[in-house]
Amino acid sequence: MKEYAKLCLALKASVIFKNVLRDKAVNALIKLLDSKNENTEEFVLLYSDFVSALYEKSDNLTKYINEILQNDDNAYVKSCAAGHASPYLKEAAEHELESFAALADIKSIDIKKHCESGIFLPEWENGGIDIVKEYKQKISSVGTTGYGIYARYKMFLFKDGEIVPVKYPDPQRLSQMSGYENERQKVIDNTLALINGRPCSNILLYGDAGSGKSSTVKAVVNEYYGMGLRLIEVKKNQLYSLPDILERLADNPLKFIIFIDDLSFSSSDGDFSALKAILEGGAAGKAGNTVIYATSNRRNLVRESFGDRDGDDIHIQDTVQEIMSLSARFGLKITFSRPDKDLYLSIVENLSLQYNIHINKDELFKSAEAFALRNGGRSPRAAKQFIEYLASRENL
């Protein structure tokens, strides 16, 4: 199709948005536009290949291409995020955006007129978005919206050497939590300091199981995601990768919580050395856009046995003190203790309102206490499990 030859050539010359050309649907559309249309069968195959790829995600070509451009991780958006985009990058990006906007505006009716087969060919929608304007708005707010995978997701895992998104993160919100207001406020205040570029601390949240330590961290991320906050969860056996992770994030305009859940070590565990080096601010210390939040059921993060005090270490006392003092290297330590009866029942009552549980208060509290007794004692987790149990019965 000769009228699209110049556009296809301009798109193939893309430098900034080179990765967009590798998208399945975009690649199929360019092949279709670039075809010589020598026979009907070839055209139909190219047409169906493109529409099939498009329909996998959308039936609106403009919105589809806009989303790919918005999420593309390229040199231009990275340099804009770092505050030093060169005029060459900017000029290239602007020209390429115009080309992709023209591609996104191509209508199915204009393509179908080249086919004389008389068979049905499915169509697609266009419009609804100004691609160039949308991208400029993205660049202006990249500090809070992020780019690449960080623009699409809020929580991540470190897996097989890569930072991968959690597609269905814990939806816990601060408004859904009750009790431990003072403890949560400390986490909130520290997190807001991180977001606003003020001095902030690494936090150790320790206390009884089920007291809401992990839920607090995730709820804070859900609350302040729109302000540029993200979470990356790192397992204990991945702590040796912390310097690499922090280096990858150093130039990112977003703010990151490096989350280590259920942290503890044995006295012979070498993994704590990697964390210790980061907490102490060594040569591979964390950047200003990251903070470490760890949860533990133990205040002393290293499990020590009496046998550890013996052995052949000449300076055994120094060794013991080093491994036992890891928790002291967190700037802020917050205790989540097991709730007493009044706090536990208060949490139960608040959750019953959220879940629209209609039951006599005396009966509710009596059943809640019995549930806790059968399930390891009072805790916010036990309260939530109890209320969810009641909710499931009401919905029967």
Written overview of the protein:
This protein is an alpha/beta fold. Helix content is 48%, strand content 10%. It has helices at residues 5-12, 24-33, 40-55, 61-71, 75-82, 87-104, 108-112, 131-140, 142-145, 149-152, 181-195, 213-224, 242-249, 272-279, 316-324, 341-354, 361-374, 380-394; strands at residues 155-159, 162-165, 203-207, 229-233, 255-260, 265-266, 290-296, 302-303, 332-336. The strands form two sheets. A seven-stranded mixed beta sheet has the order 2-1-4-5-7-3-9. A two-stranded parallel ribbon has the order 6-8. The N and C termini lie far apart (61 Å). Residues 304-310 and 312-316 have low confidence and may be disordered.
Q: Structural class, from helix and strand content?
A: alpha/beta
Q: Could you say which overall geometry the principal axes of the C-alpha atoms support?
A: elongated
**Beta-strand share of residues:** 5-15%
The number of helices is 18
Placed side by side, the strands forming the largest sheet appear as 2-1-4-5-7-3-9
The first-to-last residue Cα distance is 61 Å
Number of strands: 9
The biggest beta sheet is recorded as: 7 strands, mixed
Poorly predicted regions: 304-310, 312-316
How helical, in percent, are the residues?
40-55%
Mean pLDDT: 87
Order of helices and strands: HHHHHHHHHHEEHEHEHEEHEEHEHHH
Q: Return Rg in Å.
A: 28 Å
Describe what is shown at a glance:
By secondary structure, this protein is an alpha/beta fold. It has helices at residues 5-12, 24-33, 40-55, 61-71, 75-82, 87-104, 108-112, 131-140, 142-145, 149-152, 181-195, 213-224, 242-249, 272-279, 316-324, 341-354, 361-374, 380-394; strands at residues 155-159, 162-165, 203-207, 229-233, 255-260, 265-266, 290-296, 302-303, 332-336.
